[in-house]
Amino acid sequence: MSRKPADEAEGVIEDNEYVNAPVRPEDKAPPDRRLLFSSPSLPLLAVCWILLLLIMGLRIYFTTISDDITEMNQLRENLLAAKQELRNLSEQLNLEKEDSRKKLNSLKLQLENMTQHYHVSEGKNTELKNEIQELKTENQELKTENQELKENFTKQITDLEDNWEKFNVNRAQWTIDSYCPADTSKVRTCSACQRGWYHIQKSCYVFHNSEAPSDLKTWEEARENCRGRDADLVVVHDEEEKVMRDLRERL
């Protein structure tokens, strides 16, 4: 058995007294923070948080990349469709360009033909102008001649009217003298036929019997002579033999 020294015993007693003594607030010291950092679970917790944040960041990153890839694929499809549409439009424009080129060549050919026709028409127009000028000159001359002819016709019509009046007077006088001849005492006796004509039944007859060769006429000439006297040649039929016999008896 051993015993502690007295000093140590007193120290133990003091410690016991200290332990059993009530603790005052001002005597209570704050916990040592270094003990917390020195705990063995703190590094593991930090690593877990770091891994969790890394996983969340990677998830967000890959989600964003996936959305971007989907959007880029959609954009690529849209660009391919637009490219195909542009290609079709380019082919259509090439066809329209070829058609326009053909139409342009046709229009150029038509323009050349129209230019040639224009020059030909210009020459014809000049000729027509000259002809029109000549026609105007001829028209003026014709107007002058027409005026002269009109004056001549007016004079001739006036002369004809005067002659017609004289002819009517002479014809009336001749008719009076033919149908109502006057005797030596100037007394007129009218008959149904002209002087020198014979009234037989309902008609008047005249008979020409000339043996001179110069007075001989053909049928047509004799008929024209009769028509000039407002008469006609006699056509002898059986029923008219009595008329001709009476005419011969009077001659």
TrEMBL record:
Keywords: Coiled coil, Membrane, Transmembrane, Transmembrane helix. Residues 65-163 form a coiled coil. Gene3D superfamilies: 1.20.5.170, Mannose-Binding Protein A, subunit A (3.10.100.10). Residues 8-17 have a biased composition (Acidic residues). The chain crosses the membrane at residues 42-62. The keyword Membrane applies. GO terms for molecular function: transmembrane signaling receptor activity. Residues 1-32 are annotated as: Disordered. One of its GO terms (cellular component) is plasma membrane. The keyword Transmembrane applies. PANTHER family: B-CELL DIFFERENTIATION ANTIGEN CD72 (PTHR15028:SF6), CD72-RELATED (PTHR15028). This is C-type lectin domain-containing protein. It comes from Gasterosteus aculeatus aculeatus (three-spined stickleback).
